[in-house]
């Protein structure tokens, strides 16, 4: 049994853009409501993220209504328009594309996914910000959700435009421990790192450092989650989410202390087994 509780909750309406803190959110089978239902692509359809464009960290998308984090609409289709902002750009409101819009095929890490275009105004806005031609797309219908990796799925489980799993959990005590290790390394001047480097959905506090690596099943608020896998980390974690500048940490320290095979691991990938609402302060009960 653990005394852990939820310290903060976050959604990322557009994949790769800055996140939004929430006091509560609704967890759907494919992830938090309004989370990563929009994505930027290159003209050929390949996804674009902070890996290629670290300046996306400085852009932000906010849902146009509070229904995205606590209403009843998300369980049906997750549909929610957004308002985007970025340095040097006037804000733009982007509505959900019409339901009769013809779908197009885009690719997320090589996997084909059906989505619909957000329209020329959104494409032009992001293209001007990034200085290259891009397209904004929306995952409009439940049948367009991506199937989970069969290695980790139990039945027909799906996910939105998140990298691989519906929900990502991190621990504040594990971040404190990681920052202590960074302080002892060659790039101590880069620390301590904030949690936003790791782009979590749920942040827990009150557990021992790295205790989450032993968790297999959790109850949080109205929800039950299965732990699918530890979260392998990439260059995005080295990107300062307030400046877009890159360093060496935390990958250097994770490589020395938190390696699992070829992966550098921090946090847990979760799959909802029972959906519902979670709120800041909710207890985190370890079931297995």
What this model shows, in words?
The protein is built from 3 helices and 22 strands. A hairpin with a 5-residue loop joins strand 5 (38-41) and strand 6. By secondary structure, the chain is mainly beta. The model is unreliable at 66-77 (pLDDT under 50). Helices cover 10% and strands 35% of the residues.
The low-confidence runs, each spanning 5 or more residues with pLDDT under 50, are 66-77
Order of helices and strands: EEEEEEEEEEEHEEEEHEEEHEEEE
Distance from N terminus to C terminus (CA atoms, Å) equals 9 Å
Largest sheet: 9 strands, mixed
Helix/strand-derived category reads mainly beta
Q: What is the number of helices?
A: 3
Average pLDDT level: 92
Rg (CA only): 18 Å
Provide the helix percentage: 10-25%
Number of strands: 22
Work out the strand percent.
35-45%
Overall shape: globular
Could you give a quick summary of the protein structure above?
This protein is mainly beta and 288 residues long. The chain has helices at residues 120-130, 172-183, 251-257, and strands spanning 5-11, 20-22, 24-28, 31-32, 38-41, 47-48, 60-63, 82-86, 89-94, 104-108, 111-117, 135-138, 146-147, 158-159, 167-171, 202-205, 217-220, 223-232, 259-260, 263-274, 276-279, 284-286.
Give the tags.
single chain; 288 residues; globular; 22 strands; nine-stranded mixed sheet; five-stranded antiparallel sheet; mainly beta
Write the layout of secondary structure elements.
Elements: E1 5-11, E2 20-22, E3 24-28, E4 31-32, E5 38-41, E6 47-48, E7 60-63, E8 82-86, E9 89-94, E10 104-108, E11 111-117, H1 120-130, E12 135-138, E13 146-147, E14 158-159, E15 167-171, H2 172-183, E16 202-205, E17 217-220, E18 223-232, H3 251-257, E19 259-260, E20 263-274, E21 276-279, E22 284-286
Parallel strand pairs: 15-16
Antiparallel strand pairs: 1-2, 1-16, 3-4, 3-21, 5-6, 5-12, 7-8, 8-9, 10-11, 11-12, 13-14, 15-20, 17-18, 17-22, 18-20, 19-20
């Amino acid at each position: 049994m653990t005394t852990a509780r939820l310290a903060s909750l976050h959604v990322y309406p557009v994949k790769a853009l800055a996140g939004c803190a929430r006091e509560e959110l609704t967890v759907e089978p494919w992830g938090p409501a309004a989370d990563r239902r929009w994505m930027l692509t290159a003209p050929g359809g390949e996804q674009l993220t902070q890996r290629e464009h670290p300046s996306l960290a400085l852009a932000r998308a906010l849902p146009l209504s509070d229904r995205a984090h606590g209403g009843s609409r998300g369980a049906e289709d997750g549909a929610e328009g957004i308002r985007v902002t970025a340095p040097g750009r006037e804000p733009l409101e982007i509505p959900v594309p019409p339901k009769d819009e013809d779908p197009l095929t885009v690719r997320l890490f090589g996997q084909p996914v059906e989505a619909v275009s957000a329209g020329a105004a959104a494409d032009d806005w992001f293209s001007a910000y990034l200085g290259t031609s891009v397209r904004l797309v929306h995952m409009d219908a439940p049948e367009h959700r991506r199937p989970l990796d069969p290695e980790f799925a139990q039945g027909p489980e799906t996910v939105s435009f998140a990298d691989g799993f519906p929900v990502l959990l991190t621990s504040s005590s594990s971040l404190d421990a990681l920052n202590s290790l960074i302080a002892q390394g060659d790039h101590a001047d880069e620390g301590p790192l904030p949690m936003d480097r790791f782009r979590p959905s749920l942040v827990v506090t009150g557990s021992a450092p790295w205790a989450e690596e032993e968790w297999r099943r959790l109850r949080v608020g109205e929800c039950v989650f299965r732990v699918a896998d530890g979260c392998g980390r990439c260059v995005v974690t080295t990107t300062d989410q307030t400046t877009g500048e890159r360093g060496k940490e935390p990958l250097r320290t994770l490589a020395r202390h938190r390696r699992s095979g070829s992966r550098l691991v921090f946090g847990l990938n979760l799959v909802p087994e029972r959906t519902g609402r979670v709120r800041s302060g909710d207890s985190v009960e370890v079931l297995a």
